[in-house]
Amino acid sequence: MFDIKAIRDNPEAFDQGLKRRGMEPLSGQILRLDARWREFQTQAEQLQAERNRLAKEIGAAKAKGGDAAALMRQVAESKEKQAVLGAEANSLRAAIDAALAPIPNLPADDVPEGGDAASNKMMRESGKPPHFPFKTKDHAALGEALGMMDFERAGRISGSRFVVLSGGLARLERALAAFMLDLHTKEFGYTEISPPYLVRDEAAFGTGQLPKFAEDLFRTTTGLWLIPTAEIPLTNLVRDEILDQARLPLRYTALTTCFRSEAGAAGKDTRGMIRQHQFNKVELVSIVHPDKSNEEHERMTACAEEVLKRLGLAYRVMLLCAGDMGAASRKTYDLEVWLPGQGAYREISSCSNCGDYQARRMGARFKASGEKGTRFVHTLNGSGLAVGRALIAIMENYQQADGSISLPEALQSYMGGAKTIAASR
To answer: Above pLDDT 90, what percent of the chain?
Structure first.
């Protein structure tokens, strides 16, 4: 959501931000509604002031024993007029909110121009893709050969885009999640949360998933939404709150199962585990002072990077262009990990600074020290990491000629001391 005053003060900047997102100008439409809303508001306030004056006259007339009937009729008529004006004003306010609700956040000044991934900017690389003296397999072929990754049975149970993991791969998935949570809580100061997986409309609206992306989510028959990311419940922990500045920053992490209908990805990544309807993810969320959000963005990205470094995986950091960012983000870094099975880098984490975009939608504020009034917090979120894609990366980068999977040292203690995953004899 946006500050309507900021749009009034600088409509050109608002429209320029939309243009960078590939959208047509909207300030004129919004400001016309705003002008009418303010007109009705002004008239309603004038009627209220008139009633206040009449109330004093009624009091004075009664004190003198006079007839106040005429004045009281004026008050009644004024109330009726104000009710009509109030209804019109409320209708216009709702129209303004409806117009603003689906508009994505405006890009930060240092976000590259461009409409798709081709315009993203590589910021840095870490590690080198491994060289194999044998013909490599992708994770699906490896997992099926191990007898620990079953898409056929998952399909009979749930349909396409699901998988059943068993044995060593099921434990590896659990190990990866535990490793990430331990790293983020013990070394990086995040507080672990176990949040709900079902959320109300208001929560999904607050983080920007609604109304624009409803078709990408699963909804229950009771009207609740299955979370597509723990960003929703974690960020909404401060919904409708006024925080003391001394509490900032707040840093949360959670391991959750996530659910996405992937309605916009038909036919894409249909093989294997790359794009699933259900997957596990360790999420990072920060609630910070506005002056600290850029600094926190770099910090959060470094926390996610550290997971990949300790797993010994080659990756690169991409600064997304204006047209490739998520709707709620004003600036996003994608971490892309090397997958030998695809011969390409693929996204494994997105770390985004949302500025005050989500805070305005949630009503999340803080009381600044030594200041009157309140200000909106800034919110940030990132994957730290997507567990399923990390599992894919381990399998493909640590595969052996015999089809077994060597385990990074960082995970061996989580795997009961095992150094490899191999097919059972």
So the answer is: 84
Q: Which two tokens stand for residue 205?
A: 């609206």
Token readout for 79 is 């109330």
Provide the annotated active-site residues: 260, 275, 347, 350, 389
Is 56 strand, coil or helix?
Answer: helix
Alpha-carbon gap, residue 133 to 331, rounded angstroms: 40
Over residues 212-231, mean pLDDT? 96
pLDDT at 142: 98
d(CA 226, CA 206): 15
- Rounded-to-10 torsion of CA 252, 335, 288, 187: 50
d(CA 215, CA 262): 8
Q: What are phi and psi of 203, to 5 degrees?
A: -70, -45
Return the CA Rg of the chain.
Answer: 27
Cα angle value 120/114/25 (rounded, 5°) = 145
- When the pLDDT of each residue in the chain is averaged and rounded to a whole number, the result is 94
pLDDT band, very low/low/confident/very high, at 148 (cuts 50, 70, 90): very high
Residue 270 has a pLDDT of 67
| Residue type at position 227 | I
CA distance 287 to 103: 22
Q: Please spell the DSSP secondary structure of 314-358, one letter per residue.
A: -EEEEEPPGGGS-TT-SEEEEEEEEETTTTEEEEEEEEEE-TTHH
Per-residue pLDDT at 267? 61
- Residue 65 carries which side chain, given as an amino acid letter? G
Q: Is the pLDDT of residue 256 over 60?
A: yes
CA atoms within 13 A on the CB side of 406: 11
- Say which DSSP state 138 is in: -
Distance of CA 378 to the CA centre of its chain: 12
In 3D, which of 320, 338, 306 has the Cα closest to residue 111?
320
Summarised one tens digit per residue, pLDDT across range 259-279 is: 999 755 556 666 899 999 999
**Could you give all domains of the chain from N- to C-terminal order, each with its CATH number?**
4-100 (1.10.287.40), 117-421 (3.30.930.10)
Those residues with Cβ within 8 angstroms of residue 3's Cβ, 6 or more apart along the chain or in another chain: 360
For 34, the token pair is: 């705003």
Burial of 278 (0-12, 13-18, 19+ CB in 10 A): middle
β-strand partners of 365: 242, 376
370-420 tens-digit pLDDT: 888 999 999 999 999 999 999 999 999 999 999 999 999 999 999 999 999
- Residue 287: count of CB within 10 angstroms of its CB: 26
